[in-house]
Specification:
Distance between the termini: 70 Å
Protein name: Small EDRK-rich factor-like N-terminal domain-containing protein
Helix content: over 70%
Low-confidence stretches: none
Largest sheet: none
Domain Small EDRK-rich factor-like N-terminal: 1-37
Order of helices and strands: HH
Region (Disordered): 1-65
Shape: elongated
Mean pLDDT: 88
Structural class: mainly alpha
Pfam families: SERF-like_N (PF04419)
Strand content: under 5%
Number of strands: 0
Number of domains: 1
InterPro entries: SERF-like_N
Length: 65
């Protein structure tokens, strides 16, 4: 366990490193909403492509039988 001055120096060093890191959210409300909608649109497109692929695979499997 650290003692005295070493603990203080380590704490100061950690505080300095933490202050350099970005905060959790730097987006404004409208930017955040726009990003949220964009991400949702991307996920919906991805899900639609996966559904179409599954349907095509099921159709191909049904034709083989």
């Amino acid at each position: 366990m650290t003692r005295g001055n070493q603990r203080d120096r380590d704490r100061a060093k950690n505080n300095k490193e933490q202050s350099k890191k970005k905060s959790k959210n730097e987006l404004t409300g409208t930017e955040f909403q726009r990003k949220k909608e964009s991400d949702a649109a991307k996920m919906q497109a991805k899900q639609k492509a996966a559904d179409e692929r599954r349907a095509a695979e099921a159709l191909a499997a049904a034709k083989k039988k």
